[in-house]
Amino acid sequence: MRRPLPLSAAALALPLFFLLLFSSTADAHNITKILAKHPEFSTFNHYLSITHLAGEINRRLTITVLALDNSAMSDIISKHFTVGTIKNVLSLHVLVDYYGAKKLHQLSKGTTLSSTLFQASGSATGTSGYVNITNLKGGKVGFGSEDNGGDLNSFYVKSVMELPYNISILQISKVITSADAEAPTAAPLSLNLTEILPKQGCKAFCDLLIATGAAETYQSNIDGGLTVFCPTDAALNAFLPKYKNLTAAHKVSLLLYHGMPIYLSLQMLKSNNGVVNTLATDGGAKYDFDIKTDGEDVTVKTKVVTATVTATLIDSEPLIVYELDKVLQPRELFKAVPEEEDEAPAPKAAKKKKTKAPSPTASDGEEEEDADSPIGSDESDGEPEDQKSDKDGAFGSNGQRSIVAMILSLWLSVLLV
């Protein structure tokens, strides 16, 4: 018969269990934010963003980034490579395995080959997508592209940041040279949004972008990455009576609210749940919304309406267009739906709901969340910011403090028994 766990052991096991729980729910790494704390890597960080390698790095669970300081990056810039070629060169500096400083000096047989994002991209030929890592005499570690005959032309400098078995950022002395990675690449095809959208079933939305001038803002953001949420023509036509009541400036804000100045593939979209900014975000005007994932379903939730991503219309990096079943309505322009209406109502709340008068502007077939009319101002509806903190994730800042306090109280009570 198994003996019960002693109270002292239980008291020690309890906080350990929750420590592991909180560790497993930690936020994923963000290479851009990490490198932003190190100005000497600002050029490297900049090119990770414009080549969209930053997104690739962030969505991988295990990765090693061989970072180049501004001086080392000048060797790449001076060669006047296209953005596509720079992407290939830098992707050779991202290893799809974890190498911390300790592991570098404890390599089995003193040397190893590591695959890179260049290899994973399918652009590398032969062994050019592999990097040779060799632990040399005196603790020196060298790096070289395998297609250069194992020539170790770059060396380990220091560890910038390590999160064991998740992400490691190591500074190396020089660019890892590779003839294959540095080969000229074709310039990316020109993407004209106003030509693409009508062909993908977004004619009504595109017509509004052109009519208001918002199309220019969308187009200017494509090269740096653009994600568009396009309401179906049916959804937009049903929304037009509200749209016509908006001022000219508010119409532009509403349309810009359907774009994000970053490329997010469907996989990236699913892994980037939480509050995000839009093309309409400007200073005090937040114009943000929540991205939520439930299994394979992705929803975009404002404080007014929740829309579902129903299809990917075009995915041609740096542009991606998703189809939505509703028009996104920002709380800056429309009355927010009370938070309690999104949850199961209590018995008392049900009574009040029976006596609630219907909105005079709502049509018979229109959903309740779409029934509110424009508030006619860029001002927020005044909802306290702290109301959304606990809904942004299972462990929001306030919610986490409450849970930690509860755990500590329970732990102390067990110790005092």
Number of extended strands: 14
Mean pLDDT equals 79
Describe the largest sheet: 7 strands, mixed
| CATH fold category name of one domain | FAS1 domain
Membrane topology: Lipid-anchor; GPI-anchor
GO cellular component, one term: side of membrane
Main location: membrane
Protein name: Fasciclin-like arabinogalactan protein 2
Considering the chains and any ligands shown, give keywords for the structure.
FAS1 domain; 14 strands
Detail the topology: elements first, then pairings.
Layout: H1 7-24, H2 31-36, H3 42-50, H4 53-58, E1 63-67, H5 70-77, H6 83-91, E2 94-95, H7 101-104, E3 111-115, H8 117-120, E4 130-135, E5 141-145, E6 154-163, E7 167-172, H9 193-199, H10 203-212, H11 214-220, E8 226-231, H12 233-244, H13 248-256, E9 259-260, H14 266-271, E10 274-276, E11 289-294, E12 297-301, E13 306-316, E14 319-324, H15 347-355, H16 397-416
Parallel strand pairs: 1-7, 8-14
Antiparallel strand pairs: 1-2, 3-4, 4-5, 5-6, 6-7, 8-9, 10-11, 11-12, 12-13, 13-14
